[in-house]
Specification:
By secondary structure, the chain is of the alpha/beta class. It is built from 9 helices and 8 strands. The chain has one domain: NAD(P)-binding Rossmann-like Domain (Rossmann fold, 3-Layer(aba) Sandwich).
Length: 260
């Protein structure tokens, strides 16, 4: 998919951060973009930014933790732009504070639903649409926390490890359906999410996390979007995991072992 002109993309979590940056980059490359987000104001703002720059976009209000809304966002994309060529499974949250196992059940339950279940469900809903187009590309937003031990948020780490595992396991879709599935694993990105975690903290923990964020160099959302577009354009990549770290070149991370 070297040429994105005329393609149709669906971006979850497109109302801010990585999703917004990717939607803008896709539109600049000539794709029509459906923006799916639970944040209506953010999603419509992304559409405005795309259209101001001369691109095509539309917003569909979506809670990715609900199957009927996953189905609706795919149907909306097909009805609005004629199909689905690209899916960026990007919507994500963290589990907040206190961390697991002290975290309230509803916190980790929703984190698993948004970060992992929704990636599985989004893929399941998009594959038939992509088959109707003769193929497509799925790029999942995982995290460096999906490749390392991340005790700061065990549930977030578990979901991102799951996204990495799913991505690698779906490499067979390239041969079977001309659908390539890959993922990006960025380290800290300058989005609202790291700071949102502060809202659930108090006292010493909040001060400690503020100090951590102050000294960690962050990747920009635009840098992640650039990596996503490179993956879309590289027809050889399937089941691959790309790590993004501040000040370092992008690199593909192979599994640590195999069954054979």
């Amino acid at each position: 998919m070297k040429d994105l002109e005329g393609k149709v993309a669906l971006v979850t979590g497109g109302g801010s951060g990585i999703g917004r940056a990717t939607a803008i980059a896709l539109a600049a490359a000539g794709a029509a973009v459906a923006i799916a987000d639970v944040d209506g104001d953010g999603g419509r703002e992304t559409v405005r930014l795309v259209e101001e720059a001369g691109g095509r976009a539309a917003f569909v209000h979506t809670d990715v933790s609900r199957w009927e809304e996953i189905e609706r966002m795919v149907a909306f994309t097909e009805e609005t732009f004629g199909g689905v060529d690209i899916l960026h499974n990007n919507a994500g949250i963290n589990a907040g504070w206190p961390r697991f196992p002290e975290a309230p059940r509803e916190n980790w339950d929703r984190t698993i639903a948004v970060n992992l279940w929704a990636v599985v469900a989004g893929t399941d809903a998009a594959v038939p649409a992509m088959r109707r187009r003769g193929g497509g590309v799925i790029v999942n937003t995982a995290s460096l926390a999906g490749l390392i031990a991340y005790p700061q948020d065990p549930i977030y780490a578990a979901t991102k490890h799951g996204v990495v595992g799913l991505t690698r396991a779906l490499a067979f879709l390239k041969d079977e359906a001309n659908i390539r599935v890959n993922c990006v694993c960025p380290s800290f990105v300058d989005t609202p999410m790291p700071r949102r975690r502060l809202e659930s903290m108090k006292g010493e923990e909040r001060a400690r996390w503020e100090a951590v964020l102050a000294r960690i160099p962050m990747i920009t959302p635009a840098e992640v979007a650039d990596a996503v577009l490179d993956i879309l354009r590289d027809g050889a990549l399937a089941g691959q995991v790309m790590a993004l770290q501040y000040g370092q070149p992008r690199r593909l991370v192979p599994p640590s072992m195999s069954l054979m």
